[in-house]
What does this fold into?
Amino acid sequence: IVFLDGTIVNVALPSIRDDLGFSETSLAWVANAYLLTFGGFLLLGGRLGDLFGHRRIFLLGLAVFTVASLACGIATSQATLIVARAVQGLGGAVVSAVALSLIMNVFPEPGERARAMGFYGFVCSGGGSIGVLLGGVLTSAFNWHWIFLVNVPIGIAVYLLCRSLIPPGRGLANAPK
It folds into this structure.
């Protein structure tokens, strides 16, 4: 859903512009707020995972992303949508950065790790590709709010599954000295 959100919004931009009264110039911030915070916080997200535990930070990032998706979906003003998109990008960066570390830790065998990395790559590229199609379907069938609201049940389901499937670990900050 993190990579999906980078592209799903593109098809809905005209609807968002009309509904919230964006100018052509300010409309770019709906996409840019997400992309800038996503790119800007990747390294910090990875470092936080190293310090405080990858599972803990992954779940935190997923919760931030899901709540921000809800905020985007119920946004009724330009400022609310742009700020929520920025927060969504922050959560997405943390999830993305820590997901690779989780794969490395959960799958220690080279063969299993290779399959997991291949699946991760497939899901990421698929999410980016499907985003454009899903954005068009949701915007046409319902309205632009649903391109964000679709993340909420998925985020909750992933959160619950990860709590039960990913073993807890300690980060460097919690390691015995």
